[in-house]
Task: inverse folding
């Protein structure tokens, strides 16, 4: 298409012509040097990536304990370049926020409907009044008659029962997101949204499910009620507002709820709070003096921090090998398949992996973990206690990546599907032409395959262990998230 030029434009003056002739060589030179500048930028980026890898390998002046598996894991640690431009990132985040808000709003509406749909006259509490029970027991031959045989007239009906809630009472609530701490991939990836009601200090948890693009449902996972701590220093005490914060553990008895069989295998299951409604929390704390006094986060145990400090240097260099190796070792020695191992087994595992811990610290750790005095502890809990774990922001992206792989929600992913979904196009070595895309992909698959008990598939716990070990060597949260975004497109 030819450019049109208006006829009434004045002709350029001699001064402008002279400037054009003077600048024309510089403009041409800049155009010619543009590809060269792009190549230099890529080279500098590659050199920075190589330097970061070498600095990780030569940290503390020695790398004798690094093996091929560690070096392949370090290749993933330099995969931190931003996957999207600023405009694309903003659009993606906005879309994710809108989808998350829609999910939460759907659950809120379902909770309000479930709690307000029951009429007072049909409340089961109407048939448990003491005078009605006495009258029923006085009738000959009835004894403890069923509810529909008991005599109750309209004038004996309570106008308001304990469970007769109003919308105004239920509006003072705290919404929080949670996840199940489990090695089962199907359970660990459940989307759970909970609510704490300030009016009666009860809580409920709903599970959000999506079927296809447009069909969704929100079903009760934990029925509304007042629940108590089942483990820890506050065992036996009812949950209150101070127990809800990001990273808090909520423990429940599995027999008290209608749960899947995979969760019922353990007498106590744990929910981890991964986010809360900060605005609602501030309002509830400000409106109640009692909550203000009780709302205090329990600090991590000094014993845990001391032990984690001992192993921090080791994990920064070979975190993937240690975490995944220990997980594989524990799964092999767990003959009962319930996840609980004895004290002697844990000591032997630490010896095998050359993880030295003072005997006094181990005994203090065991007293905290073995609160049931059964001489057995869940090995996942033991690993989290001595090494720590990634924060919930990082964990959310690990779960998102695994849910993308396990779209059928079976709890395990064939290694063939992992190979299809993993992307190495944006790796610095690939962009610089120093490594082929297939080479980077193969190094990742070999490292991940070393962690798996079954070489043809990867479970959620194995996938999580890999990125748990990788996380120890990455300080910045954004760098860790970029690794997952580049690799899996989440």
Result:
């Amino acid at each position: 298409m030819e450019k049109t030029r208006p006829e009434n434009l004045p002709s350029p003056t001699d001064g402008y012509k002279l400037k054009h002739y003077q600048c024309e060589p510089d403009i041409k030179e800049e155009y010619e040097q543009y590809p060269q500048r792009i190549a230099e930028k890529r080279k500098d980026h590659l050199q920075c990536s190589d330097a970061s890898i070498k600095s990780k390998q030569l940290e503390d002046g020695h790398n004798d304990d690094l093996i091929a598996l560690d070096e392949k894991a370090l290749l993933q640690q330099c995969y931190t370049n931003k996957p999207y431009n600023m405009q694309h990132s903003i659009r993606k985040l906005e879309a994710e926020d809108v989808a998350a808000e829609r999910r939460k709003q759907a659950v809120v509406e379902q909770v309000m409907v479930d709690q307000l749909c029951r009429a007072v006259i049909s409340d089961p509490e109407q048939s448990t009044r003491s005078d009605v029970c006495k009258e029923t027991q006085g009738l000959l031959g009835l004894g403890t008659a069923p509810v529909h045989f008991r005599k109750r007239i309209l004038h004996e009906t309570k106008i308001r029962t304990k469970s007769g809630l109003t919308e105004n009472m239920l509006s003072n609530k705290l919404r929080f997101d949670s996840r199940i701490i489990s090695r089962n991939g199907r359970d660990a990836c459940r989307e759970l949204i909970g609510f704490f009601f300030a009016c009666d200090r009860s809580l409920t948890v709903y599970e959000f499910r999506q079927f296809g693009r447009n069909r969704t449902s929100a079903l009760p996972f934990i029925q509304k009620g007042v629940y108590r701590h089942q483990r820890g220093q506050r065992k036996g005490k009812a949950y209150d507002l101070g127990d809800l914060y990001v990273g808090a553990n909520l423990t429940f008895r599995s027999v008290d709820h209608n749960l899947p069989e995979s969760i019922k295998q353990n007498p106590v299951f744990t929910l981890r709070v991964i986010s809360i409604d900060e605005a609602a929390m501030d309002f509830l704390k400000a409106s109640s003096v009692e909550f203000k006094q009780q709302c205090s986060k329990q600090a991590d145990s000094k014993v845990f921090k001391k032990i984690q400090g001992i192993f921090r240097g080791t994990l920064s260099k070979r975190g993937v090998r240690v975490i995944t190796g220990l997980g594989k070792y524990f799964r092999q020695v767990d003959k009962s398949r319930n996840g609980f191992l004895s004290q002697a087994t844990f000591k032997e595992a630490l010896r095998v992996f050359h993880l030295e811990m003072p005997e006094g610290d181990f005994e203090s750790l065991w007293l905290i973990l073995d609160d049931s005095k059964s001489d057995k502890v869940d090995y996942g809990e033991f690993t989290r206690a001595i090494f720590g774990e990634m924060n919930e922001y990082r964990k959310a992206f690990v779960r998102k990546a695994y849910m993308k792989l396990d779209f059928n929600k079976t709890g395990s992913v064939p290694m063939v599907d992992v190979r299809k979904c993993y992307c190495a196009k944006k790796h610095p070595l690939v962009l610089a032409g120093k490594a082929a895309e297939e080479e980077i992909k193969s190094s990742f698959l070999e490292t991940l395959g070393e962690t798996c008990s079954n070489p043809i598939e990867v479970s959620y716990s194995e996938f999580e262990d890999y990125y748990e070990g990788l996380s120890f060597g990455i300080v910045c949260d954004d760098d860790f998230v970029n690794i997952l975004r580049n690799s899996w497109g989440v």
The first strand starts at residue 173 and ends at 180. The chain has a mean pLDDT of 76. The CA atoms of residues 347 and 362 lie 9 Å apart.
